[in-house]
Fold:
Amino acid sequence: MSVPRLAVIGTGWWATTAHLPSLVDYDGAELVAVCDARADRARVVAERFGVRHSFNDVSALVAAGLVDGVIVATPHTSHHEVARAALDAGLHVLVEKPLTTSASDAWELVAVAESAGLHLAAGYTYQHTRTAGFVQRAVREEIGELVCVAAEFASGTVTLFAGTEDPSTATEPHPLTYSDPANAGGGQGHAQVTHLMGMVLWATGRQVEEVSCYLDHRGLAVDVADAMAFRFVGGGLGTVTSTGTAVGGQPPHQRIRYYGTNGSLEQDLLSARATLYRGDGTSISSEPAVGEPAYPTYAPARCFADLLSGRGPNLAPGRPAAATTAFLDAAYRSAASGAPQRVHARMG
Ligand SMILES: NC(=O)c1ccc[n+]([C@@H]2O[C@H](COP(=O)([O-])OP(=O)(O)OC[C@H]3O[C@@H](n4cnc5c(N)ncnc54)[C@H](O)[C@@H]3O)[C@@H](O)[C@H]2O)c1
Structure:
């Protein structure tokens, strides 16, 4: 197809901050429709971005036959149902992170997309940078056998988990999107560790076999601080430390270290910089290209459009995204049971 026709489902904070501004300014896609469970919101957003059609029901949108693909930016626990409806209608799908909140749902989306020959992508923005490509090549080709990974993600997300946002503004998510487990699944795990482990599993091309996890909810309904230790399928170990309490003047830290038998790699997600240290004492670094933002919020939607028109690769494919959901599913089970848990239902 030359220029894919797209719809955005869920017209809340992230869609209006990232995907809609990205697509209205991009001639590689035609933004045809928006859809939100709140009809008033869908209409207002359609007017604001000059989109012809607005829907308040996903089944009506997919039945209308107006689009080739959809971008799903609804709360976490709705991702599976919305994405499945689109795939069943023969549409390509980009789903925001996390792909779903359960392992079986995530692998099901991958299976349905693959058997129908449809593209499935996830909203892992960090994977859409020049440095992410450098990291993926270096981890797979330069550092030798992977020995262990240390991953850390601190952010100021605790205010989202507390649900203190003002729902009347378009610049903040609905207060219940991240604070109510019925919408969010978990807190820091599904909102942030998913970015971190999404990168680790995409870069390494590996899956996790078993994970042990501790969570601290700090009085809220969802987890705020997470600690995890895990073992990859085929060998290699890893740890995750993550907190949503980096508010005020505290600097967030979001970084991953990969240690191999021939070298190691330090990746800083916030600055989109990375350095490869080789066993022979040499090193090489990557940083954003001139004019490339460290966090390219516009990139996933445009990459998805380019994927559909055959002009670019899938930089956040469904399989590693599903492996990330499966990892988190096991991590949450581990925290609940107090015992290490196997990661479920990997596909071949
Ligand atoms: N990649 C990133 O960096 C990034 C950043 C922020 C948010 N996100 C993701 O974006 C998604 C949306 O988050 P948000 O902050 O915009 O939330 P939000 O609460 O601002 O918006 C969600 C919207 O979805 C609508 N909605 C809910 N259920 C629906 C359904 N079944 N069908 C249609 N519309 C429905 C709601 O009415 C609301 O307008 C989440 O998955 C979140 O994790 C990604």
Q: What stands out?
A: The chain has a mean pLDDT of 96. The longest strand covers residues 146-154. The longest helix spans residues 318-337. The radius of gyration is 19 Å.
